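new request in #modeling-help
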Amino acid sequence: MSTRFDEIMSRRGEIMRGALGMDYSRFEQSPIAFDYEAMMADHGYSLADIKAIQRAAGVGDTPLLELRNMTDLVRSMSEPGKGARIFVKDEAANLAGAFKDRRASVSIHVAKEKGYEGVIAATSGNYGAAVSSQAARYGLKCIICQETFDSRHIGQPEIIEKSRICEAYGAEVIQMTVGPELFFHMIELLDQTGYFAASLYSSFGVSGIETLGLEIAEEMRQRTGAPPTVCVITHAGGGNTTGTARGLKRAGAGETQIVSASVDLSGLHMASDHDFNRKSFTTGHTGFGVPFATWPDRADVPRNAARSLRYIDRYLTVTQGETFYVTEALVKLEGLERGPAGNTAMTAAVSLARDLPRDATVVVQETEYTGAGKHHWAQLNFAKEMGVGVCSGDPKNNVPGKVIVIPERPEQIQAKDFDVDRMRRSYVRNALKNAGAGYTPTAADIEFLAADTNSSPEKVEALVAELKEA
Amino acid sequence: MSDQRCRAGDWVEVQSILLEPADRSKNLPEDTAAQPLRMWIKGYAQADADMGAEVAVQTVTGRTVTGALSDINPGYFHTFGRPIPELVHVGTDLRARLVEYRAAQSGDAVGESGGDEGAGSAAGQDAGTEGGAS
């Protein structure tokens, strides 16, 4: 029997077409390949246009701060001659407190231009605040669908705070229990209201992040004479990595190493009612990072503009305890009180800067706002209430959902390399699976897969052969 | 709470079930699949109602949504909570470590010809100011 869920999901493509104001079928080339760059350029805005849209929206041009105390902290535990200079782009200075404002500002501008009455987004994160804030500025109605509570009506304080801030900006917030059907209800509402789908993964949103890469390249050239050696990016759905890396490349900083960083949440199931309140992080974690990198088109748009494997040079994971420790260190050493999830990249930077020469530069490209609920104390107190242990010790013993181990000394902060080749392999497997069992990739498909995984056609060819045999 | 009653026009919260377990996505872990998908939404009550009774609300976007009355003038009560004992020492430890490191560096620098900062002369000055205080 067909349910309301099946009925809405079967009309998903048609509903989303109307709600995005963009026909994605024009970019499709085969069951595997599509023209990514044509999709990204389709909105017709230059980078200068996007900067102007953002300036009018109170977004961008955030301070780039050199963290001399964090740098010396790293040097105090590095080999002689090692310990790179650390900088941070203080994205919390955006209007609604996070880099997500860059995404929202372009999406909402487009919604206004195209004459939509309102916008809808499904998000439990900072993006909800960003969309609500921009919708308020543009005088558009706004609905945010949020995964807020477990089945006992208990919610992480960080998400409750996100409900509050969205409502403060005048949005209608729909708070739901755990489950991916959040997107089903969003699509149902898009159908009902005719509003614009302010998807996190549209080309509008991801183009909005390119200015962040551009600003980093330009400011670092002014400050140090060169783009950064490394840019460390907190990685969740992949938009942050994709947009920042594209912006750096467009600014001529193609040599900058792109390092994505996520909090390791392995062992926790993202759709589990039980695990929901035991994550202690709502974003910036591997629960989004790995699935979206290895299959970006699982998103709410036909083709995801956030395709992080195109750009990742290195993917690091850090533990929950390490990230809370570094959040506390940043407050006390730099006077920067910022949200823990946004400090994921900072935590990875503390680890990787130790192994780089002193004249190297590391830019951590975001921070996010903090406050009641959305604060490392609030998260740790809530973890304890949920029965998760919190103790001091070696962060190697951190077990997501069971025990958060806060380092005793900064030397214990050791980011781990996640195998990017393994992610490339998963991506190719997913692409083949999605194309259908009988489909044989063409030479053009191989080229596409190589570009989409930042690999070579030869390597992809070998991978395809190997996967077919298996 | 059950003796509470809202009046028409009050800012309230209602709760409803979006999907019963049988109607949910087939791709769910067991614990989630056993639960209905619930939602809560706020708006202006369209009629007087008792807590738990069905009432229509008009939301801020102007939609009319019906559900069981779950709160009247709903608020937010999230906080920071108490300090975390495992974190309270971090600031003191690290500041002391920096003082020690910089003192050692400025000692070393006597025999050398300055910092290794290249373009970072300001960084050298900062380190000198703080480390040299002792």
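bot summary: Chain B touches chain A through 53 residues (CB under 8 Å).
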